[in-house]
Design brief:
The complex is a heterodimer. Chain A is mainly β. Chain A is built from no helices and 13 strands. Chain B has no helices and eleven strands. Chains A and B meet through strand 5, strand 11 and strand 12 of A and strand 4, strand 5, strand 9 and strand 10 of B.
Chain lengths: 116, 110
């Protein structure tokens, strides 16, 4: 399996621009997670989907952030408008959920976002 | 949410030495994972270990769920073991997502 695929790997943009990050989860996984990693806050969950439905978006910083999962093999995280404080590494992860919780989560390589 | 504490925060080892990394958590857990974040930023799965003991080569891990801690053992360390080791847990009673500790930064010197 190719693992979790993210694109782009690096993104540099100017403040105010729209940014779209993409993720393809591992085939057969039914849950997808978006995380953000910064020096100040470490790794934190932004949102997760189960069977393409958003379950918990309490970690989304503000209305400038939105995420979609139109089908089981694709998700996007959009920031509009972007701000310098959004600079971070954004990870996507996928997993399989059972009635007792999640099995092992697998992470993509991340997208390093720099907003100038 | 659940609190996850890792110790030590930083560790410097001579190549060939052994080490133990600790992860304490504040609530009962459904899921516990250990990750290695390499110098290129990739998060590599090491263990999925909500309880018990597992071994994989020079690495092993033990989780004592009743006492709310997990240990990661690295034996005969190599320079390629350098990076940050994260413990992450899914609370049994809380939301279904992983909460990460702040990590242990390991540097192995030749």
């Amino acid at each position: 399996d190719a693992g979790v695929i993210q694109s782009p790997r690096h993104e540099v943009t100017e403040m105010g621009q729209e940014v779209t990050l993409r993720c393809k989860p591992i085939s057969g996984h039914n849950s997808l997670f978006w995380y953000r990693q910064t020096m100040m806050r470490g790794l934190e969950l932004l949102i997760y989907f189960n069977n393409n439905v958003p379950i918990d978006d309490s970690g989304m910083p503000e209305d400038r952030f939105s995420a979609k999962m139109p089908n089981a093999s694709f998700s996007t995280l959009k920031i509009q408008p972007s701000e310098p404080r959004d600079s971070a590494v954004y990870f996507c992860a996928s997993s399989l959920i059972s009635d007792r919780g999640f099995y092992e989560q697998y992470f993509g390589p991340g997208t390093r976002l720099t907003v100038t | 949410g659940i609190q996850v504490e890792q110790s030590p925060p930083d560790l410097i080892l001579q190549e060939g030495a052994n080490s133990t990394l600790r992860c304490n958590f504040s609530d009962s857990v459904n899921n516990l994972q250990w990750f290695h974040q390499n110098p290129w930023g990739q998060l590599i799965n090491l263990f999925y270990i909500p309880s018990g003991t597992k071994q994989n080569g020079r690495l092993s891990a033990t989780t004592v769920a009743t006492e709310r801690y997990s240990l990661l053992y690295i034996s005969s360390s190599q320079t390629t073991d350098s990076g940050v080791y994260f413990c992450a847990v899914e609370s049994l009673t809380g939301a279904n997502n992983l909460f990460f500790g702040t990590g242990t930064r390991l540097t192995v010197i030749p």
